[in-house]
């Protein structure tokens, strides 16, 4: 955790130096970290993104999903944002977003109440969310971001069913919400 905070601080200093040079660019690369919670049965997690953006228009991010309960990376995530106000130097920038989360983890389940033993297998889940977000520009290189949306999930972890032939778990489908808050640093 200490190394992660040091790395984020280093990115902030580097990005402030790059933005202070006064070069105008239309495309930028950001590093973003977000904490989020969904209603699909998974515990809250963290997303680490590398984001390519066209300033004040749209962005596309690819990242990893880190689960703090398992203390490891369990999936990938893709995020796309379209900014609603296309003016430069706004402190508040509202945007529409699409968020995709793919998770794969290993879980186990008891065979039955009468027999002892556990079955282990892989478990996959897909989530799609749409919604509205707000980016707060702290400086030219540092911003805060929040998102709130609704979506659908395919494979809820709340009531997994084990398939012995495929050696994996599957879950139910449904609708859920997503709430996300994060911070980003412009690298280039």
How does CATH name the architecture? Beta Barrel
What is the number of E strands? 10
The end-to-end span amounts to 24 Å
The main sheet orders its strands as: 1-2-3-4-5-6-7-10
Task: Bin the strand percentage.
Answer: over 45%
Structural class: mainly beta
Tell me the helix content: 10-25%
The number of helical elements comes to 1
CATH third-level topology: Porin
Short description:
This protein is mainly beta and 188 residues long.
Structure description:
There is one protein chain. This protein is mainly beta and 188 residues long. It is elongated, with a radius of gyration of 19 Å. The model is unreliable at 14-22 (pLDDT under 50). An eight-stranded antiparallel β-barrel has the order 1-2-3-4-5-6-7-10. Helix content is 10%, strand content 62%. The protein starts with a helix and ends with a strand. The protein contains one helix and ten strands; from the N terminus they run αββββββββββ. The protein has one helix at 2-20, and strands at 27-38, 45-54, 58-67, 72-83, 92-110, 118-137, 142-154, 161-163, 168-170, 173-186. It has a single domain, classed as Porin, CATH 2.40.160.20.
């Amino acid at each position: 955790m200490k190394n992660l905070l040091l790395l984020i601080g280093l990115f902030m200093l580097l990005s402030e130096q790059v933005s202070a040079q006064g070069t105008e660019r239309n495309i930028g690369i950001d590093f973003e970290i977000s904490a989020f919670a969904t209603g699909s049965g998974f515990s809250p997690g963290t997303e680490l993104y590398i984001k390519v953006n066209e300033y004040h228009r749209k962005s596309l991010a690819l990242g990893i999903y880190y689960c703090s309960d398992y203390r490891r990376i369990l999936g990938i995530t893709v995020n796309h944002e379209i900014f609603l106000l296309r003016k430069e130097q706004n402190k508040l920038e509202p945007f529409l977003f699409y968020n995709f989360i793919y998770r794969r983890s290993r879980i186990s389940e008891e065979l039955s109440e009468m027999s002892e033993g556990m079955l282990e297998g892989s478990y996959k889940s897909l989530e799609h969310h749409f919604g509205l977000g707000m980016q707060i520009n702290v400086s030219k290189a540092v911003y805060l971001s929040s998102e709130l949306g609704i979506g659908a999930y395919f494979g809820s972890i709340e009531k997994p069913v084990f398939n012995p032939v495929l050696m994996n778990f599957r879950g139910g489908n449904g609708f859920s919400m997503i709430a996300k808050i994060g911070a980003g640093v412009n690298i280039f």
